[in-house]
Design goal:
This protein is an alpha+beta fold. It is built from twelve helices and six strands.
Length: 283
């Protein structure tokens, strides 16, 4: 069989990222999302200095803690974090359709990020500055909550750390989805780290699919299956992407598994049609 060194190298790099991510997150809902996000960025690059990026994040947190020291008013403490991130360091909202704005190593370097990426970074700085924090995954947008001295605040890191209220969240959902009914009060309770990482991977997968970059989209599916091992829709998508990448035998195996797990799936007829097409290709 002909060897393809470049492809083999890509597969080894992606496999290493997958293994490292699996080891980091284990089977718990809580882990270091920033570290996990940096490992995601290593899926097709073996030259990333993740330890250096982690050191930069620690330095940022130490500086946030230093600036907030002695400030008991929650708003004054919050201003210290916001001034550091958005005024001194210059972080700002980027392009949600640019994968670089969702990959944490790129966000740290370019200082632009998606709502989720900036919220996770803001949470880390705020946590080091003494706040309790939580991520809030609104439909179509991502914000975060902070708590200090008995005061709860909602923060939109994508818009320079603006303090927002529940009605602003409702408007964000309406503006980004066109469906006011998608907003529910309980969304403000926050999500766990596994859900946040899954959302990051889903965003990247969507962007890569829109660019017909099926190799990178498949890598996101592989990482998603580390985060959500039992997700049958990701198994289906892995099969579809493998068919796009010219691997009909592997695609068939994945789609057969999907139908075994979800025999009454709404898209079962469509999947069977694709499988018939793949069998014709193999013949």
């Amino acid at each position: 069989m002909e060897r393809h060194p470049a492809l083999e190298s890509e597969l080894q790099t992606a496999g290493a990222a997958r293994s490292a991510l699996s080891e980091l997150i284990g089977d718990t809902p809580h882990f270091d999302v920033l570290h996990a996000g940096l490992l995601v960025g290593a899926f097709d690059r073996d030259d990333l200095d993740i330890e250096s990026d982690l050191a930069r994040i620690r330095e940022l947190g130490n500086e946030a803690a230093r600036r907030a020291h002695g400030l008991e008013n929650p708003f004054a403490r919050l201003d210290a974090v916001r001034e550091l991130l958005f005024e001194q360091l210059g972080f700002r909202g980027g392009d949600v359709d640019d994968p670089k704005d969702s990959l944490f190593h790129e966000v740290l370097e370019r200082k632009t990020g998606s709502p989720l990426a900036l919220s996770v970074l803001f949470q880390r700085a705020a946590s080091d500055a003494g706040f309790e924090t939580r991520g809030i995954g609104l439909p179509g947008h991502y914000v975060c909550g902070v708590r200090y001295g008995g005061r709860d605040l909602l923060i939109d890191a994508y818009h320079q750390g603006a303090v927002i209220v529940e009605e602003d969240c409702r408007e964000l959902v309406t503006r980004n989805t066109g469906r006011p009914s998608f907003f529910r009060r309980e969304l403000l309770d926050g999500v766990d780290d596994r859900t946040t990482l899954g959302r990051m991977l889903g965003n990247l997968k969507r962007v890569y699919l829109s660019r017909e970059d099926y190799r990178r989209a498949l890598a996101m599916v592989e990482l998603m299956l580390v985060v959500k091992p039992g997700d049958t829709q990701e198994r289906r998508d892995r099969g579809i992407l493998l068919s796009h990448l010219g691997q009909p035998d592997k695609a068939l195996a994945e789609l057969e598994t999907y139908l075994e797990l979800e025999p009454s799936a709404p898209d079962a007829a469509s999947v069977r049609g694709r499988m018939a097409w793949l069998r014709r290709r193999l013949q």
